[in-house]
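Task: complex structure prediction.
Instruction: return structure tokens for all chains below.
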Amino acid sequence: MSLRMALLGLLAAEGPASGYGLTKSFGGSLNHVWQASHSQVYPELTRMVEAGLVTVSEDGEPRGKKCYTVTEAGRAELEHWLTEVEPSRVVRNEVALRAFLLSILEPAQAAALAEREIEVYRHRTAQLQELRDALFTASDPVFGRYAADLGVRIAAAIGEWAQVTAEELRKEAVRRGNTPESGP
Amino acid sequence: MSLRMALLGLLAAEGPASGYGLTKSFGGSLNHVWQASHSQVYPELTRMVEAGLVTVSEDGEPRGKKCYTVTEAGRAELEHWLTEVEPSRVVRNEVALRAFLLSILEPAQAAALAEREIEVYRHRTAQLQELRDALFTASDPVFGRYAADLGVRIAAAIGEWAQVTAEELRKEAVRRGNTPESGP
DNA sequence: GTGTGCATGTAATACGTTACATGATTAC
DNA sequence: GTAATCATGTAACGTATTACATGCACAC
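Output:
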């Protein structure tokens, strides 16, 4: 259902678009929130037309391009989902899973992995910060503004975690290095 | 692959267990990191036996219980995955997607949704904090310690976001309420 | 004319959820 | 005896990834 809602939301907020354009949005503004490839998007759009949530036109567009527009029913469906349907809070976070598994490695090895993450999330935080600031300086409310802010906060939190964890693992590695007798 | 690694990690860290027990772990310590139901776990364990990553014994156990143990090959596979395989950074976060879509609602409605999240994440932060503190007071390194810390940081970040966003949306709602002429 | 990017689709496979189905053990 | 929990499994369906397949338009 989430993919459908993401597509509906994009069309509602940014106006009519093609399947190709919507797929591109998943690579851009929506990237840190939801992802889908064209092979998922095209069939879903077809189903959404059948369900009356969007309409399609291909009149006069070059390259057989199709243009999708939300209907009133589509807008209502989206509002209903946002306000009435309980969000799924299922978490499946590979970075966190790796964190969970970190302690089965030697501390030095684990520290090296954590250090790699510091860089990744420093970069991601900066990137999202730029996006957020661009959206916030635009005077009127812009779609994606709140999501960008959430993205910054989460990325920064992971970065800080990586920092603290790497330091702790380094200390542990030194401790073990200094007292090799105590290790298993 | 992640499910397989999660199972391997649990078996490596917490010792031999049954499919049932492993499934329970996804409801407990691993819950904020990865999730899987028994209908996914049982077939995967069978495949892992075939692949030589774990061994199974059902001798003398009550209720047809099976006991799975990691093999050396399994441990090696896990270490290889942790250290050599690039983590998938695909994000699919329904809470964040809803944040993205927030601005298509009336500010007052959007604020109400954000306010609901404040409570949810306050609660989740407190819960994880307790788990983390319990793991950290245990003197020697405990599995799940780093993941719990990461969980706390992410939950706290989302909670703060909800706080700030709700406030901003409330202000916007008041602004619009005071100047109804400015609306669409 | 040729490469890049726009634009659409399908097929096979993998991963995940929900529902169905069954039976043993323990606590009351 | 009966309800709860332990314990295992399968089937149907839904969602996501990867790979295959095709063609138009435009810039150089």
